[in-house]
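fyi for ur records
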Amino acid sequence: MKVLVPIKRVIDYNVKVRVKADNSNVDLANVKMAINPFCEIAVEEAVRLKEAGVATEIIAVSIGDKSCQEQLRTALALGADRAIQIDTDQNLDSINVAKLLQKIVEEEQPQLVILGKQAIDSDNNQTGQMLAALTGMPQGTFASAVKIDGDKVHVTREVDSGLQTIALNLPAIVTTDLRLNEPRYASLPNIMKAKRKPLVVKPAADFGIDLTARTTLIKVTPPAERKAGIIVESIDELVEKLKNEAKVIS
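which gave:
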C-alpha cells in the first residue's frame, strides 16, 4: 500500500515567535524551523504501518521554496522512502495547497493520504478536508488510532461523548491528532541515509493551477502580555481577591 504524507515547514514549537516591527508578519529571520508537529505524527504513523507490513512505500510531499527540503530530508530520515517538493515561493491559502496536493494524489494514486489535522502556525484545520472534497476520497479527521483491515481503514477519533470509530473504504484521507502516537527521533545513520534517498522538485507553475490568494493578511500583532501571578497566604485571601479584584465571583 502506497502512503502519501504531506508535511509543512513551520517555526519550531520550542521557539518564541516574534512579530515584525511593522506588524506585517511573523519574523522568520534566523528562526529554527521544523516539521509541523501534527505532520510529524503523520510520518510516524506511516512508518509504523510500513513496519507492520501494511504499507509498502511512503512518499513525503511539501510545498514551498528550497528551504522546505530540510523538512523533507527529516521525513526521509524518519522512514519515508522518497520525497516530492512542490516548488513555489508564494504564500498559499489552504485551498491552493489542497489543489496542488490533489495533483500529486492523481499522479501517485496512494491508497492512504495521512496528514496533520492542522499546522501550528496558521491553525486553519482545512487542508485535509478540502483535499478529501477535491479527490472525492472519504475522510477520517482527528485520528487518535488508525487500523488497516483489508480494503478499509478504521479511524478512532475523540468526540464530545467519548470515542468514535469509523470505517472508510480505501483510498482514504486521514488527519492526525496528538494522541495518535509519539514520533521517534531520527538516528544519525538514518540521517546519513536520507541524503541519498530520492527527492524530486516539481515547479508549482507546471500544475496549471491558479494560485491567486483568496485571503489577505492585514496585520499581525503579538498577544497581550500576561501579568505576573501572586501567591496568596490563605483560601480566604484567594476568595477575597477573586471577588473584589478579579471580580470573577460574587
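The chain has a mean pLDDT of 93. thats all i got for now
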